[in-house]
Design brief:
The complex is a heterodimer of chains A (78) and B (370).
Chain A: E1 2-13, E2 16-21, E3 24-29, E4 41-45, E5 48-52, H1 55-72
Antiparallel strand pairs in A: 1-2, 1-4, 2-3, 4-5
Chain B: H1 3-8, H2 15-28, E1 33-37, H3 40-48, H4 51-54, E2 59-63, H5 68-71, H6 74-84, E3 89-93, H7 107-112, E4 117-119, H8 123-132, E5 137-142, H9 149-162, E6 167-171, H10 176-185, E7 193-196, H11 198-204, H12 210-216, E8 220-222, H13 227-243, E9 248-250, H14 262-271, E10 272-279, E11 283-292, H15 301-304, H16 320-323, H17 348-351, H18 356-367
Parallel strand pairs in B: 1-2, 1-7, 3-4, 3-5, 5-6, 7-8, 8-9
Antiparallel strand pairs in B: 10-11
The chains are: A alpha+beta (78), B alpha/beta (370).
The structure holds iron/sulfur cluster.
Amino acid sequence: MCLAIPSRIVQIEGSDATIDVAGVQRRTSLMLLEDAQVGDYVIVHAGFAIQKLDAQAALETLALLREAAAAADKDVPS
Amino acid sequence: MNESSRLFAEAFRDPALAQCLLRSIERRATRPMRLMEVCGTHTMAIFRHGIRALLPSNLTLLSGPGCPVCVTDTQEIDAFIALSQREDVIVATFGDLIRVPGSYTSLQKESAEGADVRVVYSAMDAVQLARERPDKTVVFLGVGFETTAPTIAAAVLAAREMGLANFCVYSAHKTVPAALSALMANPAVKIDGFLLPGHVSVIIGLNAYRDFFQAHGIPCVVGGFEPLDILQAVDLLVAQIDAGTPALANGYPRAVTADGNQRARAVLAQVFTACDARWRGLGPIPGSGLAIRPELARYDAAQRFQIAVVEMPPPKGCACGEILIGARTPPQCPLFRKRCTPMDPVGPCMVSSEGTCAAYYRYHDANGTG
Ligand code: SF4
């Protein structure tokens, strides 16, 4: 039931939105989301957007992983 | 694919970084360690990416009670079926549920016999159906954890807003932290660390596990669903176990916050209140279910239709109960692949696309490991 694929909000109409899921357009409800904006990436579950994805946090996680990789193995490009 | 989409998904599939994480896991898994994931989507992702085969043999990944359809008790399935047999009712449900066998029959079989059972994608579709069919009462079967419950609560509030009198929900929802405590209390369960469910945590937030963590002091890491997310969470768990320093950690901060989705939690709390619930495999767990609040009783199918169901034993020979607590794996069930297949399932763990038996059936040979 969980769609783990990030979906992009392409249009907002009232409490509903059109989202793009890997190239396919679908409808989703925004009733469970605070201040959603066009362009936001969201997690969608059972027809509802349940969270906005945080780009800053994603970058920080990746930076951490790259740092650890670089420290562990100098051959691995960071 | 633009930059953001890459950042949220493809970047977390980088094979070089995955190799590094695997080496780190291997270095730290110096003794046998048992980790449990409590999310059907994790179970599927772990199989799909072939992660079990990549991990050192010291490490055992167990699938816990993370598939909502699988933990739904036979008694609840029988109640769903009894509802579908009423002339005045249309049952609306997510698809996975219809093939789950009850004591005598399934929703699918009842539907073939003439019961009106509709598969919907969202609880809002069921509200829409109720609008179109004023001659019937539409009963939505509420099965799911904290990820799903707010969507169903939102549908109840929408029905109230529309003044719809012919929509209600049969709530069999369950909540995850309560189940974790029940698992720890079960002597058959031996776990060194929990991979906590990503999307349940999106709603409830990291802090919702704080009491459980403080009570048991067991390593707990919330993980996402891409290969790097899962490997990172496993690496964090193995590091905690190795060093003997359990912590409650967030390995999925791009989606999970300390307090979760507050709007969704408020909607959930407006419609539901905690109640006792029976879990397949775990039995009754106090405070682990969600009942519709008394003031919204007209949206509560359990109140509207007094369905009496008799307690029945689980399907004969089915080991789902033990599989859901990680005490057995599907190949250890004598019916696995023989009498029980996805085409003709005996238990719910073989029916649901998130079920452990279904996952093993689909991927076990391909991965060559258990
Ligand atoms: S293989 Fe079938 S019978 Fe055995 S535990 Fe799984 S669902 Fe039950």
